[in-house]
Amino acid sequence: HTATGDLRNFDTREFSHRDFLFSVQLPASEQRTYYLRFASSGPIDIALTLYEPTTLLGSISEEQLAYGAYFGGFLVLVLYNFFMFLVVRDRAFFYYLLYAISYGLYFSVFNGLSFQFLWPQQPVWGNMSLLVLLSLSLIFGMQFTRKFLDTRLNSSRQDRFAVILQALAVVALLLSFFLPYSILILPLALLTVVVTATIMSMGITCLIRGYRPARYFMIAWGLLLLGVLVYMLKTFGVLPHSMLTQNGFQVGSLSEMVLLSLALASRVNEMQRQSRTDALTKLFNRRFFDERVAFEFERAQRVHSPLALLVADIDHFKEFNDRHGHARGDEVLKAVAKQLLDGVRSQDVVCRYGGEEFALILPGTSEGQAMHIAEQLREGVQASRPQGDRRITISVGVAGTDNAGVANASDLFHAADKALYQAKAQGRNCVIRAAG
Predict the structure, then answer these.
(1) Which candidate in 48, 120, 354, 435 could, as Cys together with 10 as Cys, close a disulfide (CB 3.0–4.6 Å)?
(2) DSSP conformation class of 219
(3) Based on the number of CB atoms within 10 Å of its own CB, is 163 exposed (0-12), middle (13-18) or buried (19 or more)?
(4) What is the separation of C-alpha 140 from the centre of its chain, rounded to a whole number of angstroms?
(5) What is the full DSSP assignment across 16-65?
(6) Res 388: pLDDT
């Protein structure tokens, strides 16, 4: 007779394997009866399979391949996001790391690998660890979601509910050190369902509100749920047993981690885009202008190509704002921004420099060519009449690298800015070229 179980040390097992394996001797032309007695303090899923030695070895090889691929991919993603956190210093990466590590360890416990390799002499902790790691996965998964989707701003009501769920998961974490598995597993499973539904709901809300990184987020969670569904359908006999259905949970989990890594990268790109974009006009902002004009100037010098800069200002804008209100003023700014953007080439860069002032970078353009472009833009704004019959005009200063007084990007801007003030002094609604 052989006795073993998950409350006994791992070395009590007949074979060193994550599952319970028993050798059965069946001589030819002989019948034998074997009795197996199972006892568990909680739910148990018993699937008995009789293997020949060669078939068992093949099955173990498939398992090792599947788990090697899963945990190898898991380790790569953890390291990638760890280094991304060190570079970007975005706390979303930190919470994702905690979530991924908790979730990965949960799977290793769920599949018996942790008991085999990490704590083979700690059966009590082996049982307790499943509850602990599931609770930690819920806590960090919810915290990552709140940070990633910025639900405090995008969905404050759902964010408050998420905090309550996190508090319940913390309670479950503390209780897992004192209550047996049989008592805590069902409430924790119910909490897992509620947390999953809440995360999906928050993702849908942010997706509807136009938060672009939420697309990857929703696909990631959808793949995880699909993997869980495939595994459950296999468990209940709806789908046949195969390497894919047996490891549906892991396939869905790894797919989720890959997509969440892409979602984090998308979030970084979105944050960078927002940091260089003017919220009102959707043009590039001054920060981007300062970086880009220096880059374009260095490139122009390197390849011996001309570079021109336009600095434009809406005439009498402050008076218009005071008379008609900021809402009308904002409409004028957006209309002028669109007119400037539509009036230049795709390689040109249009920025809102500040207030009612715009700066345009024109690569490969001489100062003389820039004068012609600036005049077209001035005429276009004047003819557009964004406020109906009320005429809006701009003054423009022009400078180029072919100007003798320009030695660097700062000189280029100051020359164009000085020309702009000369245009204002000469009555506005005109284009002035920088003095060489």
Answers:
(1) 120
(2) H
(3) middle
(4) 15
(5) -SSS--------TT-----------SS----------HHHHHHHHHHHHH
(6) 58
pLDDT at 36: 83
The answer to whether 311 touches 413, Cβ cutoff 8 Å, is yes
Q: Which CATH number fits domain 286-433: 2.70.150.10, 3.30.70.270, 3.40.570.10, 3.40.50.300?
A: 3.30.70.270
> Which residues of the chain are in CATH 1.20.1070 domains?
52-275
Phi, psi for 26 (deg, rounded to 5): -125, 90
Which uninterrupted H or E stretch holds 1?
none
Q: Which residue is it, tokens 């003819």?
A: 383
CA distance linking residue 211 with residue 147, whole number of Å: 13
- Tokens 């394996």 found at: 21
Evaluated on CA atoms 214, 219, 225, 228, the torsion sign reads negative
Burial letters 382-409, b for 16+ CB under 10 A, else e: eeeebeeeeebebbbbbbbbbbeebeeb
CA dihedral 113, 117, 122, 127 (to 10 degrees): -10
CA distance 358 to 350: 7
Residues of the chain with CATH 3.30.70.270: 286-433
Q: What is the mean pLDDT of each successive set of 10 residues along the chain, which is 436 residues long?
A: 80 82 80 82 73 83 83 88 84 89 88 86 88 95 91 88 96 94 88 92 89 84 84 74 73 84 80 82 91 93 93 91 85 91 92 93 93 93 72 92 83 93 92 84
The domain at 52-275 falls in which architecture?
Up-down Bundle (1.20)
**Does pTM top 0.70 for this prediction?**
no
For the chain, the straight-line distance linking the first and the last C-alpha, in angstroms and rounded, comes to 101
* Contact between residue 10 and residue 116 where contact means Cβ atoms under 8 Å apart: yes
Tokens of 69: 């691929």
- The residue count of the chain comes to 436
In this structure, what token pair is assigned to residue 261? 């890594």
Token digits of residue 223: 């793949």
Q: 103 with 227: CB under 8 angstroms?
A: no
